Amino acid sequence: MNSSTFRKIVQAAAIVGIATVSMSATATPSLAYSCKAYPEQADAYLKTKFAARAKAVKNWSYKTKNQYGLAWSVWDIAKDKSVECKKVSGKWSCKAKAKPCLYVVP
Question: What are the φ and ψ backbone dihedral angles of 61, each rounded to 5 degrees?
Fold first, then answer.
C-alpha cells in the first residue's frame, strides 16, 4: 500500500468518525410513555403545607402502585399532575392528582 492510498483511507475513516460523533451528539433519544386515561388521586392532612404536599404525592404513588404496579407509580413521569392545598382547621389538606404513566422501551 503506498502512502497516497494510506492517506485516503485515514481521511475516509476520519470523516466517518466525525459524522458518527456529529449525528450522535444531535440525536435525541425518543421516549415513549403509555398513560392511563383517568387520573388517580390521594390526600394528606398535616401540620405544614410542605409536609402535606409531600405526603399527598407519596400517597398517590403508594395508591397507584397498589392499583397498577410499581412501574406505574412514578410521580415524575405522570401526566396532568396537580397538587392542590388548602388550610383547614389549622392544618393543611393537600390533594395530589395525576394520570399514571409507564415508560415503554421503544
Answer: -60, -45
Work out the pLDDT band at 105, boundaries 50, 70, 90. confident
pTM of the model: 0.70
Closest C-alpha among 44, 49, 61, 30 to residue 87: 49
- How big is the chain by its Cα radius of gyration, in Å? 25
What's the pLDDT tens digit per position in 39-56? 999 999 999 999 999 999
Name the CATH code of domain 32-104 (choices 3.10.28, 3.10.450, 3.40.1440, 3.40.1350).
3.10.28
End-to-end alpha carbon distance in the chain: 45
Locate cell 444531535: which residue?
A: 26
Nearest to 101, CA basis, from 74, 69, 67:
74
The candidate with the shortest Cα–Cα distance to 58, out of 50, 88, 87, is 50
